[in-house]
Specification:
Layout: H1 2-18, E1 23-37, E2 46-61, E3 64-77, E4 91-105, E5 108-115, E6 119-122, E7 132-150, E8 162-180, E9 183-203
Antiparallel strand pairs: 1-2, 1-9, 2-3, 3-4, 4-5, 4-6, 5-7, 6-7, 7-8, 8-9
């Protein structure tokens, strides 16, 4: 019990000191995701999208901040699965780490995230009983936030923390490899993913 109290006390002290240099935020996202093989229409395969992210930001200069985040999303098939277009695409996607940049304009904040890590794993196994995933992603997420509750402006005219925010997000990613069991095979025709929806978050 004493050890747990010491760990919590140490964590609280670290958090307080870290907040002098870093901003943290937790966000939830929900919307509609579409997949398509390169050259096909995105309208052929639609899924519900639910997810969240944890972000760490360093205010650099006035309206500019840079940071890193991790994202996790779940996808549930919405349209009728078309076997000719890849079948049921329900699954999960984890982005272990991705860099991003923030730009502040009054109560509004723009966020640009570059994605190049992680996998998209389907919920259903193949006919041979193997798990199917897609890797080697390249793409981006763009977000616009309205900061509903903020702290006061900080040193060197750095904007205050965005304590509560809501906004929109748009993600577009292409996957270059197919992972079937232990095999990692380059794709001649890349799988594309588009995800658009709403986001809400808490900053501290």
């Amino acid at each position: 019990m004493l050890r747990l109290f010491f760990i919590l006390l140490t964590f609280a002290a670290f958090t307080q000191s870290a907040q002098a240099f870093f901003d943290f935020d937790l966000s939830l996202q929900g919307g509609e995701m579409k997949t398509a093989l390169q050259g096909d229409s995105y309208s052929t395969n639609k899924l519900y999208s639910y997810g969240g992210a944890v972000s760490v930001l360093i205010p650099v200069y006035r309206i500019i901040g840079v940071g890193a985040r991790t994202d996790y999303h779940l996808y549930a098939q919405q349209s009728v699965a078309d076997l000719a277009k890849g079948g049921n695409r329900s699954g999960r996607r984890w982005v272990p780490v991705s860099p991003f940049m923030d730009l502040h304009f009054g109560i509004f904040r723009l966020r640009f995230e570059y994605q190049f890590t992680g996998t998209y794993t389907l919920s259903y196994e193949t006919a041979s009983g193997k798990a199917l995933s897609y890797g080697s992603p390249t793409g981006f997420t763009g977000e616009i936030h309205a900061c509903l509750v903020t702290t006061a402006e900080r040193y060197y005219k750095i904007p205050g923390r965005c304590i509560i925010y809501a906004g929109l997000y748009f993600t577009q990613v292409k996957f270059g490899t197919e992972i079937l069991g232990s095999r990692n095979v380059p794709l001649d025709t890349k799988l594309s993913l588009q995800d658009v929806g709403l986001t809400i978050g808490l900053g501290f």
